[in-house]
What does this fold into?
Amino acid sequence: MALLFQLWAFLRRDSIAAGTARLALAWQAAGVGFTAATLYYLGRLVPAPDPAPGRPAGYFAFALVGVALFGFLVSVMRACPSALRQEQVAGTLEGLAAMPCAVGTLALGLSLWPALLGLGQAALTLWVGEAVFGLPIARANLAASLVVLGLSGAAFLAVGWLAAAYVLLTRQPDPLTAPVAAASALVGGLFYPTTVLPAPLQRLGEWLPMTHALRAMRLVLLEGTGAAGLRGEVLVLAAFAAALVPLGLLALRWSFAEARRAGTLSAY
Amino acid sequence: MREHHRANDTGTADRKSPVLPGTEWVVAAVETCSLTKRFRARWPLGRHRPVDALQDVTLRVEAGEVFGLLGPNGAGKTTLLKILATLLLPSGGEARVLGADVVRQPALVRRRVALVTGDERACYWRLSGRDNLIFFAGLLGCAPGEARRRAEAALGQVGLTEAADQVVARYSTGMRQRLLLARALLGGPPVLCLDEPTRSLDPQAAEAFRALVRRLASTEGRTVLLATHDFEEAAAVCDRVGILAGGRLREVVAVGDGGAARVRARYEAAVEETRGPALPAVGVSPA
It folds into this structure.
């Protein structure tokens, strides 16, 4: 129960702080409309990337689902390192570290609000896509989409913890998440199917969780595929999460211990 | 380092001490034994020489005592308090807070000790004072209602109830310092570590803060460790003063009658002992 209260405290704090910057929130929401409109008109030019029988979705649907999920996963990944860096620079990290909270609770708490904001933005993107531009997601399998979101979100959260460990050790901005996001966009199948890539890049893409998350989410939202049809992708995402979450947590614990040893918790 | 028998106490046997049930042994509020902290050279280039911030510090502070750590800048006061608050790991020796080891039982220690620094940035400026405290009470594991109740109580203790809904950015330095003290009081810790809490305050605000600290110690029985480089402050607030210089605990002085003069004399002697050759006066060329 104490863990829930601790996470609630982070959520409440961050929502109050975000409430003092309402214009930024409004601009973020407006950006969703611009993105959806841009992809819609682009979709009128570009033929459907995968025109197999029984797959009615055109390029607009392909790209919009990709952009919504990509945005969510990148915001989850960046949440912890950027929040930690902010605490370092603001001078509040030491106060947090002095509280009787486990490192995992701190990491989760710092990530919670940005992750929820990213989720809200993804949901808004899909809603605008459906309501305004006719995105065909009526057949979407909600339960399966939650499984994909959960597993891919855990994998990307853990990549963010690795980046946060670096931030804590070096007191420098996170250098990891931007290249991971860029590589994921390039070879993960964000704007085009990975089949258009040269074979080596396709093979590289298979080693990124984004590739599997995008593939699974498109199947779930656009074709209504259930858990059985997703077994391969779900297993790969589960393997990524199972490997990365303990690794990220260990790295973060070690970096907190190192910062305590070096006396750099209050440095930035 | 184990529990000391009450009869072995040195001049502090009359103080309130938590006696373990069923025994006559007394656990010190704070106890360190040969505590050492060496900041290592920067890896891997080793561009900086290692710094011995604390060397062989052995100290015992009884429950309910207001103990001063007096020393010039760089004496090791902050290092010692941060080790007790588990924000720094010692390089050697041991430190315990009410019997809990700061290295092996950090979670327990964090429930027993709270650190107040003189850094007014240590709270969230875009939140109100009340929201700051509700957040930190939540991190202590309090349910939302309990967190609100504790925040109200702590605000009342430091006299910030009327300003509770103002954002901290609008607080004066003195108000922020009181807010940090309120944050420390949220969990009802038996030990308070205050690291130069009055360094940015004007004389009136500093005096009010000292009065608040004395009240917390005398009426609530909390143990207070106050780090300062102001011997008058140390003599005015503390029961005993430990003089730190060059990372070593030089002497522990009981304040008592005429304490201020005695503390000042011992402090100046200790500082003189650790100081290098005097710098030439400004504008005077060395011979």
Q: What stands out?
A: Chain A touches chain B at residues 1-2, 5-6, 8-10, 12-13, 16-17, 20, 90-92, 94-102, 257, 260-263, 265-266 (CB under 8 Å). The CA atoms of residues 29 and 121 of chain A lie 7 Å apart. Chain A has ten helices and no strands.
